[in-house]
Structure formats: structure tokens, C-alpha cells
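Justification of computing resources. Each target in the renewal requires a structure prediction run like the one illustrated here; the chain below, 335 residues long, is used simply to show the kind of job we budget for.
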Amino acid sequence: MLTSSAVSLRTLGCIVVVSMVVSGCNRATTHTSSETNSGKRDRYLVIFSQCNNAEPYRAAQNELMTKLWTEKPDVDFEVTDAQQDNSKQIAQIETAILRDPALLIVAPNERGPLTEVMGKAMAAGIKVICLERDILKPNFTTFIGSDNRKIGRQAGQFIVDYLVEKNGSAKGHLVHMRGLLGVEGEINRHGGAQEIIEQHPEIKIVKDPVADWLQSRARERMTEVLSVETDIDVVYGHNDPMAIGAYLAAKEVGREKEMIFIGIDALGGPAGGIRKVMDGVLAASFVYPLCVEEAVEIGDRILHEPDFAPKEKYEVMSQLITLDNAADHYGTQAE
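Resulting C-alpha cells:
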């Protein structure tokens, strides 16, 4: 038989336990997409799984994505940063799945490792936008991106045309500054250029260092290249930061005027590729669209139009930027 004081203690304990459970439930659901009694969500949680905030292109994506989603009054928007780490991005997406977002947008760090976890999100009934880097299987609701293979071919043709003008024929020495190996962008920016360059056997690729999309690493790799290569006509960087890093390495030893530097991304702002073309640092850059406006437009329709069926793929077009048109485009691509 329990005494009155024991009963009181037990009652108090039950109240505490119930309070903790209710409090825990509230914490767990605060940032999920909530539904009304009719089953329609009154607020929408949108999570953007970003592969690496440190890259200028990615920072520009984040800034514009945040601006556009926060203009939606019924959307709670969050960005996660995988810091160029596949395992971290997978863990972040697994956590996102548990929170039941209405929409998950993923810029995969690498195409292979992210395939399975994006499939898990789809299996959980979450709408998934794969943003400008593809994966091995179509584990997404829709893909939005530009054609990196096409951009690579355009870069290859620019290189050929420049060498013909400089040397009288398609011959010369080329450095390919490569992004993170295994990533769709690197594979196709490299492969597309190779399709064109391989048609001209007198164009020699003297080095193809890997700089993982980073300006500081490209500067280090290019310093190593310059120490052993005395004849370079063109440096083709798979993004602008790497092309700029290569330029800085060449300038440090007084050789920047011996060669031209070509990049991809063509961001606006004082540090972006368009400005660097205007300043003569880059001979050319190719717009790699952020694809953010398209992602928000299509994502908003997914959230609010029950009958909307997005296409499997949306292509956002690129454009060549040279000194002839750089001023016209400055400010049109986010910083």
C-alpha cells in the first residue's frame, strides 16, 4: 500500500515525464512542414543541401536562394553545408529526411555517393530537386541545370580559335586545371573540351593538375606547373577561381602575359569572372547559371500546385563572356 506522500511523488513524476514528452515532441516538429486538419500544409519547410559553401559559386547560390525563399510568407528555408565532404552531406540529408520537409533541394558533392540517400528521400515521399549536378540514378523529382558538356565543347572551340589566331594553326600547349574528380561538372567540362581538342593533334595538354575547384589550390598547382613547363599558351580552368589562381601564380613569376586564362561560372561582383574578364585577368569565361530562380519557381509550384507535374529535366542556357560583351552582363549573374 502506497502512502499519500508516495502517491504525490509518483504523480509529480508522471507530470514531469509527460511534460518532457510533450516538450520533446514540440521540439521535434517545430521546424517540420506542418499540416492543417484538411491535410494541406500551412507552412512548408524547404531544405537546401549545399555541397560546399566555400566556393564563390556556391555562396552566390546560397545568397540568392535564401533571398527568394524568404520572400515566400509560408516557407521556412534552411541551408546545410557539406564542406565538400560526401559523408557529411549524406548525414545532413538523412537528418533532413527525419524532419519531413516539403521540399529538399540537393547540390550533390559527388554523383555516386549521393545517389542512395537521395533515393531514401524520395522513398519517404519527399519532393527532391537535384540542382545542376546529376547523380547516377534519377532519384529526384526533377533536375535543373546547365549542360556542362556543351560548355566544355564551347571552351574547347574557343581554345582552338585562339591558337589558330596566335600560331597560325591549331597548335600549342595547354594546361587543364581540373575540378574535383568524379563530379559531373568536372567530367563534362573536361570531356566536352577534349572532344574538340582531340580533333587537333598539334594541341598538346602539357599538364592537367587537380585543384578541386579552389583558387588557393589552383595557385599552388600552377606554381608547380610553371616550375617545369616553359611553353604554355592556354590555361583552361574548370571554374573561374581555379583560372584566377593559375593567373596569380603566373603573375608572381612574371609570366602571365605568355598565356591566356579561361574559366567557367562568370559570376558578377568585383571578384567574379565577368569582372576578371573586364580587367584582363581572364580572356573568357562561360556563364554557368546558378539555376536558383528556376529552382525556386519550380519548387514553389511543387509546394502549392497539387496537380503540377514537373518535367524530369530543365536546362538553363550558358553564354560565352569575353571583353566584347562582359560590361553588358556585369551584374546580371549574382555575386
